[in-house]
Every structure is written in C-alpha cells, then in structure tokens.
Amino acid sequence: MALWTSTTVTDVTKKEENDKVTSPAEKEDSWSTSKKNVGIDLGYGFVKLMDGANELIFPSVVGVGKEIKFLSDSFFQKNEVENLVVTYEDRQYFVGNLAVRQSDIASRSLDQNRVTDKNAKILLLTALGLLAKWDNQIFNIVTGLPTDLFGAYYMDWSKSIKGQYEVAFGSNGSKKVKKFSVKEARIIPQPFGTLYDQILTGTGAQTQQELARLVVGIVDIGFRTTDFAVANELEFIDHLSFSTNTALSSAYRIIGARLREDYKIDKENHELDRIVEQGAIRIAGKSYDLTGMKKDAYEQVATKIITEMDSRWDYRDFDVILLTGGGGKALSEYLLPHFPNMRLVDRPQHANTRGFQKMANGVFSDKH
Ligand SMILES: Nc1ncnc2c1ncn2[C@@H]1O[C@H](COP(=O)(O)OP(=O)(O)OP(=O)(O)O)[C@@H](O)[C@H]1O
Ligand SMILES: [Mg+2]
Predict the structure, then answer these.
(1) Which of 144, 259, 321, 361 could form a disulfide with 217 if both were Cys (CB 3.0 to 4.6 A apart)?
(2) How many CB atoms lie within 10 A of CB 145?
(3) The pLDDT of residue 19 is above 90
C-alpha cells in the first residue's frame, strides 16, 4: 500500500486551496512578508535548511550549554551558525559545531520517534530561528523522515511541529529572543526531496515531465542511514522502499578502530567527521596522512551497500537510480561503475532540502 502519494504536486496544491476558505482579512494577512516556505532536512549527521535565498548546514549535535569564559559578545554575532547558543523553555543548549567544540556532553542521537525526542525539537527550532528574519515570522515547512520510519511517525511529527515558539539565541549580553510560529507542516519520505529537486522549478511547478513518468529508485546515503526509495510516476512504493544502517558513520567506525590500533588514539564519531574530510590527523604537532585508510573504509562500506541493494532490488527494474546524500557523493566512485542507470545528483548533500523547499513553494503557494 502506498502510504504517501503525490500524483502531481499541483494536485496537492489544489487540495490545500480547497481545504481552506480564506476570508479577505486572512488573505491580506497571508500576503504579509513575514511568511516563509522552508525546507529542512533533519539528518542524523547534519541539519540542512533553506528558505529559497539562504542554504545553511550545521552538525546535528546538541550539547548542554555552559558558561564560556574569555569570549566577547561580538564573537557570537560574527559567525552565527558556528556559535549556536540556544535557550528554549528555560534551558540552554549548545548546538552544531559549538556543541562539538565546547560541550562535555554532546550527543548526535536522534530518536526514531522525533515527537518525543528533545534533541530533534531543539535542532528544528535552531534551524527555524536561523531563518527567522522578522518578528513573529510564520513558517510553512516541508521536511522528511527516513523511509522506514515514515509510515509510523509522519502524522504525529507533523502535528508536533506546528505551533508557536519563543527561542533565545546567543548568551548573556547578546541574547536575542526570536518569536516565530509554524503554520503548516508537510512530511514526506526523505529521499523524495531529491526527486522533487529534479522535477520542480523554484516555484514548485513541474518541469521535468519525463522523470515524473518513470520508475525511479533513489539511494540516499547519509551519516547513519541509507534510504532506498522507489517512485513509480511519483508515487511512493512503500513495499519496495527500505532503510539500512550502513552509511558514512560505518566508515567512521572502521577508521576509528584503525586509529585506535595504529595510533592508540580515541576519537568520537563527530570528531572523526572533520578528520576524515581533511584526510589527515594531527598527533602531537605532526600530521599523518589517512587517505589510504579512508579509501579502504569507503570501499568496504560501498561494497556492503551494493550487497544490500542487490538483495532487495534488481537494478534493471528502474529507469533511473538517483544517488544522493553526502554519503552518495563520498561513495559515488565505488557505486556508479556497478549500476549503468545510476547517476549522482548535483550538490547531493543539500538535494533533499532543495526539493523540500521547492515543494513547500508549490504546496503552500497561496500562503506566502
Ligand atoms: N562532498 C562530500 N564529499 C565527501 N563526503 C561528504 C561530502 N559532503 C558531505 N559528506 C559527508 O556525508 C555524510 C552524510 O551527510 P548527510 O548530510 O547526507 O547525512 P544525514 O542526512 O545527516 O544523515 P542521515 O541521512 O543518515 O540522517 C557526512 O558525514 C558528510 O561529512
Ligand atoms: Mg540524509
């Protein structure tokens, strides 16, 4: 059974319009500049967000806030996304890279059930706060859930996102309170963001008619999960879609074990991200090259993903297989030679977010 379908996005738009009879006063309000359609991809590794004009990313790490000594107030304003101190319901958190750098206890765990997960809410509110440029900004959101969690959680998550929020950014002297609300929230299977990015224009209209008529596989390799999703003429085919836990963090685990073995050094998962990106590690002032180790680990993970894919799919059943996610980029050189109909999408780590945002523009077109 297809849990979520969208024969065309314009159909969804029409339904939204029919659902709501707008009074002239409301109509006037809906034209206010304080409304924004946003796409947010709440990944296990990174939060990606965009509102059409701005595209931002920060690690999905939430830590307990504490006093930071020797930092001026202007430090926080300089590079907002690197220095996220967030206060929500009287508790202070460090979020993203600041949590990686400064929190004694920082976690990158997102629960399966986002509704009961405090971290998920903090990450979402941080993202919205970054995009809130007006007092009482109103947001319409499209976001995703991993393919295998979608059916169980999308309704509750959508309900729990909507509401009014008050979140303070910065610390002590430079604290700025932001008030905003989420009016509409739409949840889709995460990899469908990439598909919509391919077929929609910036305003949410369909351009790529051909892709919309095909059987498309989407392989979204992230930090902790790889999502395999199937779309037949844009319809989500639930029974052929699945998720696995083989992703880039599997490569980090392999690299972490090798670092322990070879250099007797222990690195947390979120610290490894930067080390792997640089392909080198500094120990006692000396730099050690890790490119060979990285290549081995990527190759092992790619091989496992190929096996998982072959056990559930026959790649010849698909017209096109879209490879996406930050991990898609990282592993593409090992995956693409195996599947002649697979192609890596443009700027893959942000592809879901771009699609979410385009869809928001289409679905909520009467509301901005
Ligand atoms: N250009 C790139 N080359 C290599 N690796 C990259 C590139 N861009 C991103 N990555 C890595 O890809 C990984 C996965 O990123 P992504 O943001 O897609 O994961 P996520 O969506 O947070 O995770 P999940 O989908 O499991 O929830 C990260 O570890 C990131 O460092
Ligand atoms: Mg992802």
Answers:
(1) 321
(2) 21
(3) no
| pLDDT per position as a tens digit, 181-223 | 999 999 999 999 999 999 998 888 888 778 889 999 999 999 9
Domains of the chain: 211-348 (3.30.420.40)
Give 349 Cα–ligand 2 centroid separation in angstroms: 7
Nearest listed ligand to the Cα of residue 226:
1
Ligand 1 close to Cβ of residue 149 (< 6 A) = no
Q: Which residues contact 358 (CB under 8 A, 6 or more apart)?
A: 39, 196, 197, 200, 201, 202, 203, 204
Q: Is the CB of residue 247 below 6 angstroms from any atom belonging to ligand 1?
A: yes
The answer to whether residues 58 and 47 touch, using CB atoms and an 8 Å cutoff, is yes
> What is the residue with the minimal CA distance to atom 24 of ligand 1?
222
Nearest-CA residue for atom 21 of ligand 1: 43
Assess contact for 322 and 164: CB atoms under 8 A.
no
Q: Is 350 in the pocket of ligand 1 (CB under 6 A)?
A: no
Q: Is residue 329 in contact with ligand 1, taking CB distance under 6 Å?
A: yes
> What digits encode the pLDDT tens for the residues 308-332?
999 999 999 999 999 999 999 999 9
What's the gap in Å between 325 CA and the centre of ligand 2? 6
Please measure the distance between the N-terminal and C-terminal CA atoms of the chain and give it in whole angstroms: 33
pTM of the model as a whole: 0.88
Show Cβ contacts of residue 124 under 8 Å, excluding neighbours closer than 6 positions.
40, 42, 143, 161
